[in-house]
Specification:
The model has no long low-confidence stretch (mean pLDDT about 95). Helix 2 packs antiparallel against helix 11. The strands form 3 sheets. The chain has a 7-stranded mixed β-sheet with strand order 4-10-9-8-7-5-6, with helices on both faces. A 4-stranded mixed β-sheet has the order 1-2-3-12. It has a 3-stranded antiparallel β-sheet with strand order 11-14-13. By secondary structure, the chain is α/β, with parallel strands linked by helices. A hairpin with a 2-residue loop joins strand 2 and strand 3. Helices cover about 45% and strands about 15% of the residues. The protein binds pyridoxal-5'-phosphate (PLP). Pyridoxal-5'-phosphate binds next to helix 5.
Length: about 375
């Protein structure tokens, strides 16, 4: 036991020394985009609840009613204890929204990628993925035991080169990317990537975790996954695909078969959120509109999504800037390696339909004030 604790302490000391140690800070939601932390109210730009649906009365009521009627948890895997009808209802709604033949709901988006990728490719196959793909796409790719080949972020020529070199020697091939990149807020060149993949007989899986309800896709990939826990304000993940692929997932995706089903209140909340989302185009337009208001005000490159990165560089500098903003009443997380590449620590701002224009302007002004001292010079 002593060696175990010594190991943990030594690891933590290394993280500390590099400014990379993370800590949980007790924080609760307050009104609108505000949160309460250590007795202070902060305006939060940290949440992926882009449409403000996690606290929407209709969504909360749907979850509450489902908990009363059906209980708090699912009890077991959906294959084992029977499938709650809410799941099929939710899957139908998701498939419709995405124009797909079928959908499958998972207990989280992480599990959806972890389950889907190894169900499609294995030893002797190829996974080609954007280097900035989310941790769970990398994890799914590695777990599959296929050959894993990253291409430079959004670099079509590099992706073409990788496929040209590696596709021939592989059995099946899968190309992974994100509609909106989670820590950069930029968008993949989807139309071109889909065509490139098709030309090499590779299947494309697009992760839509940060796009749903916020940015309109140009194209639909044959495999689209996402989460119920961001713009839908609930918890859980999904995959949309053809009927045979979804049938295969029910049988072979370990992140589906061997884990407890989604809790009924989460499914009910997601269903209600989908309805609110569909009925309120103004709500859907707000996060991107506010992000663009912010980038205009600071003369940053125009926002392509609800996510705006402010790159700082070193982890400690990003932490200092985040702390300075917190002192001024803003919760803006510093994102450090290994979540982002070394040397690109940043603030990650997430805009929500709940923010007011005045809150967005206040953040922009606070950052502009701190910028000379704490931010690197603007690129020419
Ligand atoms: C958040 C996220 C996931 C995981 O979704 P969860 O439902 O939170 O597990 C997957 N992919 C990307 C790009 C994400 O940002």
């Amino acid at each position: 036991m002593e060696s175990l604790d010594a190991f943990a302490a030594a690891k933590l000391a290394v993280l500390d020394a590099a400014g990379l140690r993370r800590a949980l800070r007790p924080t609760t939601r307050a009104q609108g985009a505000e949160v309460l932390r250590e007795g202070r109210r902060l305006i939060s730009f940290s949440s992926n609840d882009y449409l403000g649906l996690a606290s929407h009365p209709v969504v909360v009521e749907a979850a509450t009613a489902a908990a009363r009627r059906f209980g708090a948890g699912a009890g077991a895997s959906r294959l084992v204890c029977g499938d709650h009808p809410l799941m099929a209802e939710l899957e139908l709604a998701l498939a419709r929204l995405k124009g797909a033949e079928a959908a499958l709901v998972f207990s989280s988006g992480y599990l959806a990628n972890l389950g889907a990728v190894p169900a499609l490719v294995g030893l002797g196959d190829l996974v080609v993925l954007d280097e900035l793909s989310h941790s769970c796409m990398w994890a799914g790719a590695r777990l599959s035991r296929a050959r894993v080949e990253p291409f430079r972020h959004n670099d079509l020529d590099h992706a073409r080169g990788v496929l040209g070199r590696r596709r021939g020697g592989a059995g099946r091939a899968l190309l992974l990317t994100e509609r909106v990149f989670s820590m950069d807020g930029d968008r993949a060149p989807e139309t071109e990537l889909l065509a490139l993949a098709a030309a090499h007989d590779a299947w494309t899986l697009v992760d839509d975790a940060h796009g749903l309800g916020v940015v309109e896709p140009g194209d639909r990939a044959p495999l689209e996954m996402g989460t119920l826990s961001k713009s839908l304000g609930s918890q859980g993940g999904y995959l949309c695909a053809s009927a045979p692929v979804i049938e295969l997932m029910k049988n072979r995706a370990r992140g589906f078969v061997y884990t407890t089903g989604l809790a009924p209140p989460s499914a009910a909340a997601a269903l209600a959120a989908l309805e609110v989302m569909a009925a309120e185009p103004d709500r859907r337009a707000r996060p991107l509109g506010l992000a663009r208001r912010f980038t205009r005000r600071l003369r940053l490159p125009e926002a392509a999504s609800a996510i705006v990165p402010v790159t700082v560089g070193e982890a400690r500098a990003a932490l200092a800037l985040s702390a300075a903003l917190e002192a001024r009443g803003f919760l803006v997380p510093a994102i450090r390696p290994p979540t982002v590449p070394v040397g690109t620590a940043r603030l990650r701002l997430a805009f929500s339909a709940l923010h007011t224009e005045a809150q967005v302007d206040a953040l922009a002004d606070a950052l502009a004030e701190l910028r000379p001292a704490l931010l690197p010079e603007e690129p020419a």
